[in-house]
UniProtKB/TrEMBL annotation, chain A:
Matching NCBIfam families: anti_sig_ChrR
Spans traversing the lipid bilayer: none
Name of the protein this chain belongs to: ChrR-like anti-ECFsigma factor
SUPFAM superfamilies tied to this protein: RmlC-like cupins
TrEMBL record, chain B:
TM ranges: none
Family indicated by similarity: Belongs to the sigma-70 factor family. ECF subfamily.
Organism: Rhodovulum bhavnagarense
Tagged with keyword tRNA processing: no
Cross-referenced SUPFAM superfamilies: Sigma2 domain of RNA polymerase sigma factors, Sigma3 and sigma4 domains of RNA polymerase sigma factors
Domain RNA polymerase sigma factor 70 region 4 type as annotated: residue spans: 136-188
Name of the protein in question: RNA polymerase sigma-70 factor (ECF subfamily)
Length: 219, 193
């Protein structure tokens, strides 16, 4: 599956994700892509190793006198949650990688689609305010309106494919579009295109740009 | 991995990297809930985690609380630690990073789907040792970077400062920060070769 992926995450994104500095919506795209892509998983491991080296080389802050004892008490109170058998148990392979399934509450058949305008449908996913995430369903052959970007837009293809000025994007491919990019994605013929899109909601230049609203993205 | 490479790695004894020692301690906690092993890990890593959290913007009491929480998480997850995939320091860094996102940013962090080994998987010694050596080299490379470059990388990892906030503080435009950061990382890669 991984060998088919042609469009990967940038170093900036992988490093920011490794450092824990991305808004939740972007992290969702990164985690979903990494779930499908061994190459980016390995690159992410390198950036996390830099974090480990920084921690190891870092100066220290003195712990309080009873800190270890307090931690032992905490250990007793904490249940071994997370990563228990239930959450690690392999799931049936579906269309959505696991992190996305956690946000949707299931696979494709559980998505509650809403109209997005024209023939396109969307489902907004709950994330923190730093950026927004949504699933888009674009019927085969349908074009998205031509648009520019006020921040960063990440698009991960889950089914079908789309084409734009930057190339052909199929399952697992991620497109990173930033402020100087304008494009008109068109879902290719064949299957309907389903993708996960995260956009940076920090619209710094709101006051200067008249067409900021990008109504079709709903931001 | 080619045969000769494997052999080259195998000639190195495990005790040559400090991480090998930490791995044994984490394994002792995972396998037997060994409190003495845990207290050694605690003495070394808890003060580093606390300092990391304070640099990320937590005050001392919050950093103390979260550092205790990170160490308690280590206790409960020790059996899941995989020395083939990460050094102990890297693994603890990822736990601390995730707790920081919970506690300081009050946000969730989606994680990639875990790769699961097949049922017959045995940890590969050569892979583990190669990873430990790389981690050690990485630490040395980081330490030999020019001060300004090292600080830039560190601050990018402390988290509460975004690129743009570093930019505001240093007076450098975002593009310059990003290219310097890239330069610093490139240099780090060169050092590793
Ligand atoms: Zn990739
Ligand atoms: Zn776009």
């Amino acid at each position: 599956m991984s060998t088919m992926i042609k469009h990967h995450l940038t170093d900036d994104l992988l490093m920011a994700y490794a450092a824990g500095n991305l808004p939740e919506a972007f992290s969702l795209v990164v985690a979903s892509h990494v779930s499908l892509c061994d190459e980016c998983r390995a690159r992410l491991g390198e950036y996390e190793a830099v974090g480990g080296a920084i921690l190891e080389e870092s100066e220290t802050a003195e712990m309080t006198a009873d800190s270890l004892a307090a931690t032992m008490i905490l250990i007793g109170q904490m249940h071994a949650t997370g990563d228990t058998a239930a959450s690690v148990a392999p799931q049936k392979p579906g269309l959505f990688p696991r992190p996305l399934r956690d946000y949707v509450g299931g696979d494709l058949d559980t998505v509650e689609w809403r109209s997005f305008g024209g023939k396109v449908r969307q489902a907004v996913l709950p994330t923190d305010k730093g950026a927004s995430a949504r699933l888009l369903h674009i019927p085969a052959g349908v074009a998205m309106p031509d648009h520019g970007h006020n921040g960063t837009e990440l698009t991960l293809v889950l089914q079908g494919a789309f084409e734009d000025e930057d190339g052909h994007f199929a399952r697992g491919d991620v497109e990173v579009a930033d402020a100087d990019m304008e494009h008109t994605p068109v879902a290719t013929q064949g299957a309907d295109c389903i993708c996960l899109v995260a956009t940076d909601a920090r619209l710094k230049f709101t006051g200067f740009l008249p067409r900021i609203a990008q109504p079709f993205l709903g931001i | 991995m080619a045969q000769h490479e494997t052999d080259k790695v195998r000639t190195v004894t495990q005790d040559e990297t400090p991480d090998a020692g930490w791995v044994k301690l984490v394994e002792a906690v995972g396998a037997r809930k060994d409190q003495r092993a845990f207290s050694q890990l605690f003495d070394h890593f808890a003060p580093r985690v606390k300092a990391f959290l304070m640099k990320s913007g937590a005050d001392a009491p919050l950093a103390e609380e979260v550092a205790q929480d990170v160490m308690a998480t280590l206790w409960h997850k020790a059996h899941l630690f995989d020395p083939e995939r990460a050094s102990v320091a890297t693994w603890i860094f990822t736990i601390a990073r995730n707790r920081r996102i919970d506690a300081l940013r009050k946000s969730r962090r989606p994680e990639p789907e875990e790769l699961t080994w097949g049922p017959e998987h045995e940890p590969d010694q050569a892979e583990t040792i190669a990873l430990q050596q790389e981690s050690e080299q990485l630490g040395k490379a980081l330490a030999t970077l020019p001060e300004a470059q090292r600080l830039l990388i560190e601050r990018a990892y402390f988290g509460e400062l975004s690129h743009s906030e570093i930019a505001a503080e240093t007076g450098l435009p975002l593009g310059t920060i990003k290219s310097r950061l890239r330069l610093a990382l490139e240099r780090l890669r060169q050092e590793m070769k």
